[in-house]
Amino acid sequence: MKTKITLLIAMLFLGFNVSFAQSDQELDLNTLSIFSEYAKAKNYDAAYKPFMELRNRNPKFNLAIYHYGERILDHKIENSSGSEKVAFINDLVKLYDERGTHFASKTLKGQYMAKSCQLQYEFKDELQMTDNQLYECFDNAFKTDAKTFKNPQSLYTYFKLMVNLYDAGKKPAEELFTKYDEISEKIEDEIKHYTNLLNKYVPADDTEDEPKLSPKDAKRVKSYTSYLKAYDQISSGMDRDLGDRANCENLIPLYTRNYEANKNDGLWLQRAMNRLFTKECTDDPLFVKIVEQKNSLDPSADTAYYIGLLKEKSGEDTEALKYYNQAVDLETDNYEKGKILYRIATGFKKKGSYGQARNYYQKALAANPSMGKAHIAIAQMYASSAKNCGNDNFSQRAVFWLAAQEARKAGRVDPNLANASRDYAANYTAKAPTKSEIFEKGNAGTTIKIGCWIGRSVKVPNL
């Protein structure tokens, strides 16, 4: 009898627990439904109370707590002031932390840690935070998970804070340059990633017509180009912020002082070599010393290119070209190969060796089809050669049609160059023969052969 009573009590207790669990589940679902619907309708004030209830009662219930919660708290921050605003800012920082705790597998550490730091930076006055505190926040995020710390704005803020600390005498020059290199390398990785994605949508045919994409693909291309534009902007911003702090007068003594301690560190040599090249400090003996040491320690495409540069400076053009081509052969990554080829091409362009320059620009485009700036460079060379590449005034100016065609290709392969591409094309077209001149010549629709180094044909427009 006692056993039956005990079993009955146990069953009743279990039933109550299931009932309570079902009741709690229904309550949580109902609360989630209420605040999410309010949030979707952008009625964030109405959403706040049920959001907070579910967040406090069952923070592990659903990721939507954090998805909509961020919007709700953003609204509260925007529409409050004083101590209330500070409380909402701190609560959003806390929400990011809670998301990482309760949904770790769905929360990218670097991304959300940087998000939290960026929020605190934007409201640093309200939070009374120092540049050093904010820098430590970003630095911790970057060191914890650099892979997902890739928001362009946050990367720029991170570096800007380092510059502020350097200018205030709180960070040494070496740390400033190292941080610049680390963040620049991160940006370059992201640019490479999105460039490779964009290259999948660059048409294989070499025409100036706009590529035809499905709405889905067009959306992807728009996203990739948006990221590329943002990374390009912050890269330029970092260079401006660094400015003369990294000129040859500052770099040479620093690298000379630290050379012995780092001469067997490949990464240090690589960064020093790149920095001296970028800042045009290649005439200093230290650049030669670093390049030779890096080449003996770890030969690479970069060292081969820099040796070629040194050979060219000493007048050994044949040897220089040998090393330039070696650099191309050593590089296995198409994006990096394209960069080297573009640098080689630009060197020939500056010397007026347009035929060789075009050859290397075209190789750069083969490696990286979305490198629109190579098309612009070729167009510029065509335009500057117009007077030397025709038998008469008409055929000389016909070269500008070819230059315009080449310029339009830049916008076709790189949407971020669309405006520049149109401007170049319009400028060149304006310099080409007019309709009345075509009429007088009577050659509308015919093809003109362009001689000299260009060696191309161009069709005269129909009237």
UniProtKB/TrEMBL annotation:
PROSITE patterns: TPR. The keyword Signal applies. Keywords: Signal, TPR repeat. Residues 1-21 form the signal peptide. This is Uncharacterized protein. The lineage of its organism: Bacteria, Pseudomonadati, Bacteroidota, Flavobacteriia, Flavobacteriales. TPR repeats lie at residues 301-334, 338-371.
